[in-house]
């Protein structure tokens, strides 16, 4: 493994950490309906756990309403149960073969709670990025110990890994600021 391989691996791992956080952010309610709020809810159907998006069509006919139309009418109760047990905080109402999810207006207190939970998600992502940095530096030290990297090469690699870390931490902070602004907007 070369220094370039170490940097490439670190960059890919850090990118995955940020992507995971962005995906988690999509599931946080902002007061308007979005299929991302429920598409990854786990539903126990057909004897196994499946994502809601695999079992139903999720649409937003109105800005404050989600409509879930199961592909198989037999899964309506399973989907309703999964939505009730999920942490989205929206009570589903079943209307025959269709499940409606009215998205309520967010109170000021609920907005602040959401911002706090976003902060925790962002901090978890920062911790993952820093863990990726540590792993990359450990790999570089192993490479140096085996004679595959000079002292100058080690310093350059450390510098590049730190630049990557700074770039991805800034990306996390930018995503967090945008999502906070979206939630706090009335």
Structural commentary:
The chain contains five helices and six strands. The strands form two sheets. It has a four-stranded antiparallel beta sheet. Strands 1-2 form a two-stranded antiparallel sheet. With 186 residues, it is of the alpha+beta class.
Write the layout of secondary structure elements.
Elements lengths: L2 H24 L15 E4 L2 E4 H4 E7 L2 E6 L5 H10 L7 E3 L2 E5 L5 H38 L5 H34 L2
Antiparallel strand pairs: 1-2, 3-4, 4-6, 5-6
Helix pairs in contact: 1-4, 1-5, 4-5
CATH topology of the largest domain: Topoisomerase I, Chain A, domain 4
Number of domains: 2
> What's the tally of helices?
5
Separation of the first and last Cα atoms: 52 Å
Quaternary status of these chains?
A: single chain
Spatially, the strands of the biggest sheet line up as 3-4-6-5
- Provide the CATH top-level class of the largest domain: Mainly Alpha
Main sheet attributes: strand count, strand direction, barrel closure = 4 strands, antiparallel
Kindly report the average pLDDT value.
89
**Percent of sequence in beta strands:** 15-25%
Task: Report Rg.
Answer: 22 Å
Helix content: 55-70%
CATH level-4 homologous superfamily of the largest domain: Ribosome-recycling factor
Features:
two-stranded antiparallel sheet; 186 residues; four-stranded antiparallel β-sheet; Topoisomerase I, Chain A, domain 4
